[in-house]
Design goal:
The protein is mainly α. The protein has 7 helices and no strands. The chain has 2 domains: 62 residues, no CATH class; 63 residues.
Amino acid sequence: MEAVEETLRRAEAAGLLDDTLFARLWVEDRLLYHPLSRRAVKRELAEKGITTETSEQVMEDLYPPEKEKPLALELAQARLERYRGLGQQRRMRRTIAYLTRRGFAFSLASHVVRMLVEELSDRESGELSD
């Protein structure tokens, strides 16, 4: 037990135990490779033992509230494209479910998907009338 404590002291003195750096790297990774809602990322940080104060600061810097809707839009757009061969209602349901599994609120997920579907419908009907 003494060896563990000594190792931890030395690692901390060397700057190897930095919760803020870990949290920043975690949030950056999530945003780039496995996007989740702000709520889900905060929950993950808490599960990793990151304090609320550190989590809030990192989230404010890297994933502010205004970044959540554009991220949901981007994810929904890609997912709707992936489900292109399905009927409209099925595409919508599956895309909303995908977003909610990623931690986005149902209200945001449904709003974003409906907005994109309307945009796609307008675009497609415009192409037909040309």
